[in-house]
Every structure is written in C-alpha cells, then in structure tokens.
Amino acid sequence: MSSSRKRVAILISGRGSNMRSLIEAAEDADFPAEIALVLSNRPDAGGLAVAQEAGIATAVVDHKAYPKDRAGFDAAVDEVLREAEIELVCLAGFMRLLTPGFVEGWRDRMINIHPSLLPLFPGLHTHERAIEAGMRLAGCTVHYVRPEMDSGPIIAQASVPIAFDDTPETLAKRVLTVEHEIYPLALALVAAGLARVENERLVIDPSLPLDTTDMLIAPSFGG
Ligand code: GRF
Predict the structure, then answer these.
(1) pLDDT for 185-216, tens place per residue?
(2) Which residues lie below 8 Å from residue 26, measured CB to CB, with a gap of 6+?
(3) CATH class held by domain 6-204
(4) Any idea where the domains of the chain sit in the sequence?
C-alpha cells in the first residue's frame, strides 16, 4: 500500500485541528494517503507549527502579497502544489475563495470540510444560523469542491444533536468532534479510489462492504 499512497496537500488558514486529524490518520502506513505538504495563506496560522512538529513540509503563500489579484494568488498556490507533486488537495479551514480556474484545475481532486449539513447553511456563522433556525440537528459535510462556495458532490456527513441551551460555541465544539471523524474517512475513500463522481453525485465502489459504507457516510456520535 505505502508505495501507492496519494500525495496530499492540506490548505489551512488557522489552528488546523482538522489538519491534525488528517495527519494523525495518515501516520498509519495502511492509510491510502500521505500528507506531503501543509500550505497556509497566513504566515501566523497556528496549524503550521503543528505540521512542522509532525515533520511535514510547510509553505506559506501570503494572500496579502496579492492585493485584488485572486488569480495571481491561486496561480502561486497552484505552482507550489505542482512542484510538490501533489495529487489531492484537502481544504481544512482555508478561508480564501478560490477562482473557478483553480477549482476546475483540481476538479474531483480537491475536497473540503464544512461545518453544516450542506446544502443547508453554506458560508459563515453556520452554528449560529442553525440555532436561530430552530434546527434540532447540526453536522458537518466533506464534499468535492466546485466553483460555487460550499457546494459540490457530498462524500460524507455526520450529524449531532442541538441542545436547547447550546450557544454557537458549544455547538461548534460538538460538531468539531465529528468533523475529526469524517474527514479522514472521506479522504481515505477518495485516496483509495473507492469514491467517484457520476452526474454530480458520489458513487462508492461496490467492493466496499455495506456496513463499512454506512459507517463512512454517517459515523455514530460517540460524545
Ligand atoms: C472547521 O469547523 C471547518 O469545518 C471549517 O473551518 C473550521 C476549521 O477548523 N471549514 P480547524 O482549523 O480545522 O480547527
């Protein structure tokens, strides 16, 4: 397995807790992906130090060096990814909108985690909006990236209950625990070539046992 592991870059802007869950999963030699690079658009992203401690190469492409030039910023990111011979990209709290050209260049090879049950609540402040809408469930989604923000074929989702006394902060914490479960599972599916997109929906390789597939789509909430 190890020789065919896919080379993955994780793009972050902040603390990188999802990045850490991917790094930890990939420490298993049987995991079908290796984390070859962590790239941040912010030089002060906390996750960069975490990656370095784990012995992973890091890069910074500071978006402030590309004022009003999203295409220039994306081209610089693209160059770093290609130089590192990256095969798959994981967005993990990467807070930049990517240009359609960049997104299309990585079509079906770039995935993202979003802290809501998409297509509900794309964008920011998802937990606050879920509480305000009176939802009883919240959750998270890993999806292939398409040019429209927080859209694209869904790979995995997990849900958690919303408590009556939840604040956006307490709910975010609960959702984050399942984010850390499903992102490695979704990446494993994609990196192992067990997931593909057909008519903009996910198709899972029939060789996967049904119970495994259930677990991948909605892991139980253990907390
Ligand atoms: C997560 O909630 C993720 O779903 C969203 O941004 C947050 C990043 O958190 N896209 P972290 O940096 O992975 O801790």
Answers:
(1) 999 999 999 999 999 999 988 888 766 666 55
(2) 8, 33, 34, 35, 184
(3) alpha beta
(4) 6-204
217 band by pLDDT with thresholds 50, 70 and 90: low
Q: How far apart are CA 155 and CA 182, in angstroms?
A: 9
Closest CA to 126 of 139, 111, 143, 144: 139
For residue 45, what are the contacts with CB-CB under 8 A and spacing of at least 6?
Answer: 12, 13, 14, 15, 16
Residue 222 binned pLDDT confidence (cut-offs 50, 70, 90) = very low
Active site residue 114: yes
Nearest CA to ligand 1 atom 1: 93
pTM over 0.85: yes
Enter the tokens of residue 101.
């050209």
**Across 117-121, average pLDDT:** 98
Specify the ligand 1 atom closest to the Cα of 14: 12
The residue whose CA has the least distance to atom 9 of ligand 1 is: 93
